[in-house]
Amino acid sequence: MPITYTIDPVRNRVTLLFTGTITDRELFEVFDRLYQDPAHRIGMDELSDLRAVHNVTVTSVGLQALADQTARNLDHARQSWRVAVVAPQDVVFGLARMYGLFREDSPELVRVFRDLASAEAWLDPA
Predict the structure, then answer these.
(1) 96: domain CATH number?
(2) Could you report how far apart the first and last alpha carbons of the chain are, in Å?
């Protein structure tokens, strides 16, 4: 499975680990599972770690569909949450920024970082 997640209820955070090749279908599947997971709560921050991604076949149409899926599943609660994406590769960084633009006027605040330390610092300010 190229995308896995863990839920930390104490930190109120979901951590997603992306590895290998990532496709539109895999994105939809992991977020479907996550949103149906009884341990997931609306408003949990997310840390998406894409440092181990080697190939991406995700499309802009797929990212828009994912943004729409997220809106349907979470936006109704009107509770904000932060998403820190770690994407050192240029293509992955650009795709993550595109997703952030699709979610610009939503309760989801997306920031994309090149390194894990910066992403964690944004999620856990001192």
Answers:
(1) 3.30.750.24
(2) 34
